[in-house]
Specification:
The complex is a heterodimer. Chain A has helices spanning 3-12, 15-36, 54-60, 65-94, 101-109, 116-126, 133-140, 157-182, 186-194, 199-227, 231-236, 248-257, 261-288; strands at 38-41, 44-50. By secondary structure, chain A is mostly helical. A two-stranded antiparallel ribbon of chain A has the order 1-2. In chain A, helix 5 runs antiparallel to helix 8 (157-182), helix 10 (199-227) runs antiparallel to helix 13 (261-288) and helix 12 runs antiparallel to helix 13. Chain B has 19 helices and 14 strands. By secondary structure, chain B is an alpha/beta fold. In chain B, helix 12 packs across helix 19 (434-451). A six-stranded mixed beta sheet of chain B has the order 1-3-2-4-13-7. A four-stranded mixed beta sheet of chain B has the order 9-10-8-11. A two-stranded antiparallel sheet of chain B has the order 5-6. The chains are: A mainly alpha, B alpha/beta.
Chain lengths: 293, 458
């Protein structure tokens, strides 16, 4: 095989991936970008005309926009804190030598594999104010004053959805952090203990820095996932009552549902830009703090 | 979080390479697909699957709520006599409400429809789905001689083309009430808003929920306020077509419909007065029917289609459910007549010949009689005979002796968005007044008109 053939040989393996990537990501993204600055009736390409920034203007002047933006950020921040916090606690707990560790890991991970629509339906039933098990339980144990309209109180509904999201994904976060914890050599802890470090000092000076790559991954995934949340909100509240739990994802859905495809594309692009503006600097910042094992 | 695992893989992948930013961007841009389909069609038929014989099976798509006794009887008859009629019928249903509407619209846009589809009619297909060119012209295909021609002209014919055939009943909106509750409490049918509130108070004092609202199924919140629009149509001359044209050309806006706005305010007054169930945001359409039939509630505000559904569920008790016009402050009570749901043939239907054959049969007086015998109601086919349910009889009589108006909502050129969402915003305090509701409607209409470059909105 000649030198040139050898050089090209490796690239051939990339072709299928590049084709798939191009057709299913690059092309739709470019078309979406074009559509976001256009006006089109239905899917009739012959009606395509330049619309300038009208679609973007429509999105940001939508009456639900403030609610949706606020809810999206609230959702992303709180669920990230919740998933990271509980996930780290569980990971540290299950990193110990306990007999039921494997069973517990599986149990905590299980919610992550349940379809979000099914999760939504289950919690809609559990959180019903009169027939739901949560309020029935609270009333049964004498804590009736804590019973709430979990999904229909406009101030509480988004927090209920946040709680469901944390429940669903904490196990998944735990599994990534646990893998990170298990890759830290025990020698470091032994050496630190000999030097007189206590458990907290070990956690702060060894565990956290060496776990930073895993933390970075889960943090980025949580924020991106939180900002683009759609399915769980749609399955539990549908963005309601009214528009109390609208998020950016449901706004995009609403635009597409109204037949304003260009506006839907503009909303999608706007959300991508918002996420990029937040995630890229954050990723860079945390990456600098990573320590190689 | 539907892309959570994919994102995780991407994040893990990017960590191995120098171009970290690239994978983050990829993750970020993967947002354009916002989650999987949450409710694709399910078959409502038990016997619709193709068997080894050569009899073809036709599939019709409709909303779950529309698959009632009439369709069930017709489906059963067709499948039992498949050899004779020449086809089998499979009924595919999707959830109703905004989500169902959106699913049907997407199916229109993506040419993903079966042999037939039942919708609100051609005007809805045009206004909501922008897909009028995706249904077959039935003008010379279907015999319409047994049908109410005025109704066909209004609802099914556009630009001189017959684009759908009405199957199902026209419904009359109003108050459905439990007769036994009213009799036990010696209550008269209220004729104006004040007497309606008096009746509600008496029922409440008896420990019964006066009006059961079922706004978990958000569409049910619209019936009360929309009734007010009938008075606006009457006030503006009573010319239904002219009113529609006014809405479609920006000559009339929702903010001009004062009776509609007043009705929105009254609907909230009813909620705040404590005359409805406390858990009205969590209770479903089914809960409401059960509460009404059991006497746990005295009234629900809906339409005769609810009585038809209840007749299927509670055949022995349905005679205990009556109906009257929703009272208004001045006693000018209107009954709103909804359009019958209509069946069209999509141009993307896999076997057009079969679709035509099925629709010809379904539209025939013979088939319509089978449908109507199982589901009594007001039919567009004038040859059909059936015994109306008590609620239908009473609302029909009220409409004939009093005021009635055709429902406008599915006939406008530009949709006003989700009225249910705006109403719930008002009921839960996000909007402060009924004017906010109509403002949201007008804004949505303007957006939809602008998207179609309608110069009336420039």
């Amino acid at each position: 095989m000649s030198h040139n053939a050898q050089k090209i040989y490796g690239y051939r393996f990339l072709i299928p991936g590049i084709i798939v990537f191009g057709v299913f990501f690059v092309l739709p993204t470019i078309l979406g970008l074009i559509l976001s600055f256009s006006n089109i009736r239905g899917f009739d390409i012959s009606t395509l005309s330049f619309a300038g920034i009208t679609n973007y203007k429509n999105i940001f002047t939508d009456q639900s926009m403030n609610t949706a933006l606020g809810n999206s950020f609230l959702f992303a921040i709180v669920t990230t804190i919740g998933k990271m916090g509980f996930g780290l606690l569980l990971a540290v707990f299950l990193n110990r030598k306990i007999k039921s560790a494997n069973v517990l890991r599986a149990i905590y991970f299980l919610p992550a594999i349940i379809n979000p629509v099914a999760v939504g339906l289950i919690f809609t039933s559990l959180m019903h104010p009169t027939t739901g098990l949560i309020n029935k339980f609270l009333n049964g144990v004498g804590l009736g004053f804590l019973a709430q309209n979990w999904l229909t109180d406009t101030k509480l509904a988004i927090w209920s959805v946040i709680a469901i999201e944390i429940w669903k994904w904490t196990g998944f976060t735990m599994s990534i952090l646990l893998a990170g914890l298990q890759s830290i050599p025990k020698d470091y802890y032994e050496a630190a203990t000999i030097d007189g470090a206590n458990a907290f000092q070990c956690f702060r000076n060894i565990t956290i820095p060496l776990l930073m790559p895993s933390i970075n991954n889960t943090l980025i995934l949580s924020i991106v996932g939180g900002l683009k949340i759609f399915d769980l909100v749609q399955a539990t509240t549908g963005g309601g009552p009214g528009s109390a739990t609208q998020v950016f994802g449901t706004l995009i859905y609403k635009a597409f549902g109204s037949g304003r495809f260009s506006e839907g594309c503009a909303a999608g692009i706007a959300l991508a830009i918002i996420i990029a503006v937040i995630v890229l600097p954050l990723n860079r910042f945390i990456s600098r703090k990573e320590v190689e094992v | 979080m539907s892309h959570y695992k994919a994102d995780c893989f991407a994040a893990g992948f990017y960590r191995s390479y120098h171009g970290k930013g690239i994978m983050v961007i990829i993750t970020v841009f993967s947002i354009t697909g916002c989650g999987g389909s949450s409710g694709d069609g399910k078959s409502a038929s038990d016997s619709g699957g193709k068997d080894s014989s050569d009899i073809p099976t036709a599939t019709i798509l409709m909303y779950t709520d529309w698959y009632k006794e009439g369709w069930k009887a017709l489906e059963e008859h067709i499948n039992a006599n498949a050899e004779e009629v020449g086809f089998k019928l499979e009924i595919q249903t999707v959830a109703g409400g905004d989500q169902g509407d959106q699913l049907i619209k997407v199916k229109f846009a993506s040419d993903d429809l079966p042999d037939l589809v039942q919708t609100y009619g051609p005007k809805w297909i045009d206004a909501a789905a922008s897909s009028l060119d995706k249904v077959v012209d039935l003008t010379d295909i279907i015999d319409t001689s047994d049908y109410d021609q005025d109704l066909l002209d209004t609802f099914c014919i556009m630009d001189g083309k017959l684009l759908a055939m009405p199957v199902d009943t026209s419904s009359l909106t109003g108050v459905l009430y439990n007769k036994a509750v009213f009799e036990n409490l010696n209550l008269e049918i209220p004729t104006d808003w004040a007497s309606f509130l008096t009746v509600c108070e008496a029922i409440k004092q008896a420990g019964i929920t006066p009006v059961y609202c079922t706004y978990k199924d958000t569409w049910t919140s619209q019936l009360f306020p929309l009734n007010g629009m009938s008075m606006d149509i009457a006030e503006k001359g009573g010319d239904f077509a002219a009113f529609l044209e006014g809405l479609d050309t920006n000559q009339i806006q929702y903010k001009d419909c004062t009776n509609f706005i007043e009705a929105i305010g009254l609907s909230k007054e009813l909620i705040e007065s404590g005359y409805i169930n406390e858990t009205y945001l969590s209770d479903s359409y089914d809960n409401g029917q059960e509460a009404l039939i059991n006497g746990d509630a005295a009234m629900i505000i809906n339409a005769t289609w609810t009585a038809e559904t209840m007749a299927g569920k509670f055949p022995d008790q349905i005679d205990n459910i009556g109906g009257f016009a929703l009272p208004t402050p001045n006693g000018e009570n209107y009954i709103c007549k909804t359009i019958p749901f209509a069946v069209s043939i999509p141009t993307c239907a896999p076997d057009q010949e079969l679709s035509v054959k099925v629709l010809q049969y379904i539209s025939s007086t013979e088939a319509q009689q089978i449908y109507a015998s199982a589901q009594p109601g007001i039919y567009a086919n004038t040859k059909v005979e059936c015994d109306l349910l008590v609620a239908q009889q009473e609302l029909k009589a009220a409409a004939e002796t009093g005021n009635s108006m055709t429902d406008f909502e599915e006939l406008v050129a530009y949709k006003y968005g989700s009225l249910a969402e705006y109403l719930l915003n008002y009921y839960t305090g996000t909007y402060s007044s009924p004017e906010d509701v109509v403002k949201a409607m007008d804004e949505e209409v303007a957006k939809n008109a602008a998207a179609k470059e309608d110069s009336n909105w420039n």
